[in-house]
Amino acid sequence: MPELRYDPLRQCWVSIAMERGMRPSDFFKPIDETSRGGFCPFCQGNEHVTPPEVYALRPDGSPPDGPGWELRVVTSKFRALAMEGDLNRETEGVFEKMNGFGVHEVVIETPQHDLGMADYPLEQLEEIIRAYLTRLIELEKEPRFRYIMISKNHGGAAGATLAHSHSQLLAAPIIPPAVSTELDAAREYYRQKGKCLLCDVIKQELEAEERIVSQNDDLMTVAPFASQVPFELLITFKKHQHTFAQITKSQVTSLAWALKDTLTRLKLTLKDPAYNLAFHIAPNTNAQLPSGNWTTLEMDFHWHLEVIPRLIQIHGFERGMGFYVNFTPPEEAASYLREAGPPDVSGSAL
Amino acid sequence: MPELRYDPLRQCWVSIAMERGMRPSDFFKPIDETSRGGFCPFCQGNEHVTPPEVYALRPDGSPPDGPGWELRVVTSKFRALAMEGDLNRETEGVFEKMNGFGVHEVVIETPQHDLGMADYPLEQLEEIIRAYLTRLIELEKEPRFRYIMISKNHGGAAGATLAHSHSQLLAAPIIPPAVSTELDAAREYYRQKGKCLLCDVIKQELEAEERIVSQNDDLMTVAPFASQVPFELLITFKKHQHTFAQITKSQVTSLAWALKDTLTRLKLTLKDPAYNLAFHIAPNTNAQLPSGNWTTLEMDFHWHLEVIPRLIQIHGFERGMGFYVNFTPPEEAASYLREAGPPDVSGSAL
User: Fold this and answer.
1) What is the C-alpha separation between B268 and B272, in angstroms, rounded?
2) Residue-wise pLDDT tens digits, A8-18
3) What is the rounded CA–CA span in Å between residue B252 and residue B270?
C-alpha cells in the first residue's frame, strides 16, 4: 500500500508508492540530445563568443578572454535577469511588477568539453566551489539582491542546452519560493522548539541510517524521508551553518569530496542520469529589507544542496497540483547508491 | 530587459525574459515517444486487462467490463493512493506519515485510440465533464478525503505513459500544496478586501484584453500575467463559483466549448504539444476537519483550470528553487493563440 509522508522542510505531503517498485534499470536512458558535436561557445579558443569573463582561473597568468584558463565565469547570453536601471516597482491593480534587475552568470567549470561534474579530480571541484564562493560574496555586496541562486543542469532532460559542463548563478531582488517555504519552516520550528529543524532531521537520519548514502566528518548525503522523485538527494553539513558563504578552507575540501562521492554514485547507479543541483542558502544579509527580523531568520536556516535526478517526466498531479508520487522509496534509493561504492573519489570516475 | 512579475494566486515572482523572444516554431517537436502501436489496455475489447469499471457510458446498454462503451472510469493499476485500512497517522521524531489512503481512478475518455482531447466533438467533452462531476460528487462523500484532484497528461513529455487519451482522479486525505497556497492567497485577499482575488483578476484581465485568448458568456481563457512557462493558460468561469461540483447543466456545455476551443488553439499553434490539465477546486466540504473556518475558506476560493504546455525542460532554478524564467511573454502567447482561431469548435479539429 502506498504511504503518505510529510516533508518537514518543504512542508508538503508526498506519496511513496512502493507497489510499482521502480529500480535503477527502469530509468536507464540513451544519452540525451544536448549537442555533443558542433561548435561549442564554452570550449577553449572560443572565448570571444561569450560575454567578458568576470572571474577566471588562469594558472599560466594568461590574459582575460583568451585561452589558458581552467575555469571561467561569464555573464549569461540568455539573461533571466539583467543589471540595468533600478527596480522600478509598479502596481497595476491586482498585479505587481518590477524590472528584472539582477545578474545571471555562467560558470564554465572546465575547458574539457566531454567531462561531467562527477568526472573532475577533487582539486577541480574545489576550484569550482571557490568560484561559487567568490562570486556569491561579491554579488552579496549589492544590497538590492535579496538572494543569490546557485544551480546546475546536467543533461538535456535537466534543462541544459549546452553539453559542455557548466553551472549558473542568478542574483535576484526576490527570494525564490522553494527557499521561502523552507525559511518559513525553519523559522516556525525555531520559534516553537528553539532549535534548527534540519539539525534535528540530520540527527534522526544519522540514527536511523537507512536513508544515509555516504558521509565524511563534515557532511552527509541522504535520500530524504519524503523524496519527491526517485533518487532525490540532500547534501548537508552536519553542523549548523546558515549559508554557504560561511564555509572554511578545510570545509571546501570536504564539500568537494561529498559532491564527487555523491555524483559518482549517481553516475554509476543510474548510468549518467540528468540531474539538477540547487544550493539552498540563507538570503543575502546585506540586503536592505523593509521590515521583519530577517537576521534571526537567516541564522535559523541550515543551508544544504538539493540533488534532483531527472529520471521521469513529472505528470499532472505533480506539475499542476504540487503533489508528488514517487515509485522508488528513499530507503531503496539509498541502498542502491550505497552499494555503488565507495567509489575512488581521489581520482576520475571515468 | 527582463521583467519580474508577481503571481497573486501562486504568490511568487516569475521572470518574463523578452530578450530571447521564443515563438511557437521554437517549440515544435516530433510526436513523442508514448507507444502508439502495440497492445493498448484502454482499447475496446481489452476491458479484462483493467480493474473493473466504477463508471461507464454505455448507450447500447451493454454489460460492464466488456465492449460497447463510449467512456469508462476504472481504478488505476499503478495506484498513487489506495483504499485500504485507515489513515493510521504516525509520528517518527521530526517525520510524520500515514497510510496512502485514497482512490486513484483513470477516465478512459474515448474508445478511439488515436484521438486527443482537442479532437472530440463537443458532446463527448460534455460526457467527460459529466464523468468527472459524477466521480467527484461520489468521492466527496467519504469524509476522510480532503481533496479530489482531477488532472490530465497529454503526451509523453507531460508524463503520459499510454498514448490512448485518458485523465485521472486522485482522492486524497491531504490538500495538494499548489492548491493550499492558492487557498491561503484567496483567504488573505478576502480577509483584507472582502472580495475574491480571482474575481478581481478576471475583471482586470477582461479590461486589459491583451492576455485574453477566448471567451464565451460563462468562461474565459487567459494567459496569466506571471505565466511560469510558455503558453500557460488559465480557464475560469467569470462568475464566482468555488468548486467544479457546483456547475449547472448549461455550464457543462459552456465548459466543453471552452476546453475544445482552448485545446484546439494550442494544438494548431504549437503542433499538438504535450500538456497537463489540472482542476484547482475548493477542498471537500464533507471532510471531517479538526479545526479552522474552512467553510468560509472554501467559499472564498474561485475554482479554475490550469493548462500547462510542456514545451521545454524546466531547469535548476525552476525545479530546485521554484523560480521560473519564461522566454515567451503571456501577451505574445495570447496573441498567437487568438490568431489561431476561432476554430470550428462544433466539429472535429482533425
Assistant:
1) 7
2) 998 888 888 87
3) 27
Task: Compute CA distances A319 → A21, A99, A153, A310, B173, whole Å.
Answer: 22, 27, 19, 14, 19
pLDDT tens-place string over residues B127-139: 999 999 999 999 9
- Three-state secondary structure call for residue A294: helix
CB < 8 Å to A160, chain B: 315
Quick one: average pLDDT of B4-12?
Answer: 89
pLDDT confidence of A291, banded at 50, 70, 90?
very low
Record the pTM. 0.93
Quote the ipTM score. Answer: 0.93
In a domain, A324, yes or no: yes
- CATH code, domain with A188: 3.30.428.10
What domain range is B111 assigned to?
30-339
| Helix, strand, coil share of chain B (percent; to 5) | 30, 25, 45
Given an 8 Å threshold on Cβ–Cβ distance, is A5 in contact with B95? yes
Domain count of the fold of chain A: 1
Q: Does residue B57 belong to any structural domain of this protein?
A: yes
Torsion over CA: A67, A69, A74, A76 (sign): positive
For the segment A25-80, what is each residue's pLDDT rounded down to a tens digit?
887 776 555 555 689 999 999 999 999 999 999 999 999 999 999 999 999 988 88
Residue B251 lies in a domain: yes
Phi, psi of A308 (to 5 degrees): -120, 95
Of A131, A172, A149, A182, give the one whose Cα is nearest residue A8. Answer: A182
Interface of A with B in 148-187 (CB under 8 A): 149, 151-153, 156-160, 168, 170, 172-174, 176-181
> Does residue B347 sit within a domain?
no
- Residues 295 through 334 of chain B touching chain A, CB cutoff 8 Å: 306, 308, 310, 312-323, 325, 327
